Every structure is written in structure tokens, then in C-alpha cells.
């Protein structure tokens, strides 16, 4: 289980939890979220994401935008001030929330001592 804020990504059972309640998430949006959560704090290019989730298959990049909108809505995220998924225009996406493994190991923590974070693009939050 990978945890970020009130959410738990159950990779063994392929489901998402929020405050102990399971959230309905179709397989492909789940796969997009899982890939981002498993690679926090770094730029995931459009091509990397498409290749990872649809190997050897042509998929319109618009499908990623559709899934990102769906995920942001589900997570209560805002593209203008992202807490979870940052869009880097014409480049890709970055999962910017602190991710903690179920055993308490921090996989990625983007908050500094002063509570301000750094986005993948390098600028302050």
C-alpha cells in the first residue's frame, strides 16, 4: 500500500482507498495513477506513460488528458495549484505529493522544512 494524504493505493488488489473507503476507479485510470505514484517527484513524459501502459499500441495522447482530468476530479486536485498531479506543458506529468510505503518508508517527500515544496520543473510551489 502506498499512501499519500488521505489516500491509499492498494497495489496488491489494484484499488484506491480514501479514509478507509474504497473508491471506484476503472483499470486504465488506476494504471495511470499507479505509474505516477510509483515514480513520484520526477517528470514522466507523455511518451513514457503511453509506452508503459500501452506497449506496442498506438494511443492518442488525448487519452492521457482525459484520464488526468478524471483522476484530478477523483482526488480533488486542481491543475492550477496541484497537490497530487502537476502538468508540465508539452512535457508530461509529475506526482508531487509525499508518498509513503505502507511500512512507513517515505518514497518521496516534496515538502521542505518551511512547508513549501518544489515542483518537478524546479520552481517553488
Order of helices and strands: EEEEHEHHEEEE
Low-confidence stretches: 110-118
β-strand percent reads 15-25%
User: Radius of gyration over alpha carbons?
Assistant: 14 Å
How would you describe the oligomerization state of the chains in this entry? single chain
Structural category: alpha+beta
Strand order of the largest sheet: 4-3-2-1-8-9
The number of distinct β-strands equals 9
Main sheet specs = 6 strands, antiparallel
What percentage of residues falls in helices of 4 or more residues?
Answer: 25-40%
Distance between the termini: 27 Å
User: Mean of the pLDDT scores?
Assistant: 85
CATH superfamily of the domain at 26-108: Winged helix-like DNA-binding domain superfamily/Winged helix DNA-binding domain
User: What is the 3D form?
Assistant: globular
Give the class-level CATH name of the domain at 26-108. Mainly Alpha
CATH topology call of the domain at 26-108:
Arc Repressor Mutant, subunit A
Number of helices: 3
CATH architectural grouping of the domain at 26-108: Orthogonal Bundle
Outline the structure in words:
The chain is of the alpha+beta class and 125 residues long. It has a domain of 83 residues: Winged helix-like DNA-binding domain superfamily/Winged helix DNA-binding domain (Arc Repressor Mutant, subunit A), CATH 1.10.10. 27% of the residues lie in helices and 24% in strands. The protein contains 3 helices and 9 strands, in the order E-E-E-E-H-E-H-H-E-E-E-E. The chain has a 6-stranded antiparallel β-sheet, with helices on one face. A hairpin with a 2-residue loop joins strand 1 and strand 2. Helix 1 crosses helix 3. The longest helix is centred in the middle third of the chain and has 14 residues. About 7% of the residues have low confidence.
Amino acid at each position: 500500500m502506498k499512501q499519500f494524504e488521505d489516500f491509499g493505493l492498494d497495489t496488491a488488489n489494484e484499488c484506491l482507498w480514501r479514509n478507509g473507503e474504497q473508491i471506484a476507479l476503472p483499470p486504465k485510470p488506476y494504471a495511470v495513477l499507479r505509474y505516477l505514484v510509483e515514480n513520484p517527484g520526477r517528470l514522466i513524459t507523455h511518451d513514457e506513460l503511453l509506452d508503459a501502459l500501452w506497449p506496442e499500441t498506438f494511443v492518442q495522447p488525448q487519452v492521457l488528458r482525459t484520464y488526468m482530468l478524471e483522476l484530478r476530479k477523483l482526488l480533488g486536485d486542481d491543475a492550477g495549484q496541484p497537490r497530487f498531479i502537476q502538468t508540465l506543458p508539452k512535457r508530461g506529468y509529475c506526482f508531487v505529493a509525499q508518498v509513503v510505503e505502507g511500512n512507513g518508508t517515505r518514497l518521496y517527500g516534496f515538502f521542505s522544512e518551511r512547508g513549501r515544496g518544489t515542483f518537478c520543473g524546479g520552481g517553488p510551489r
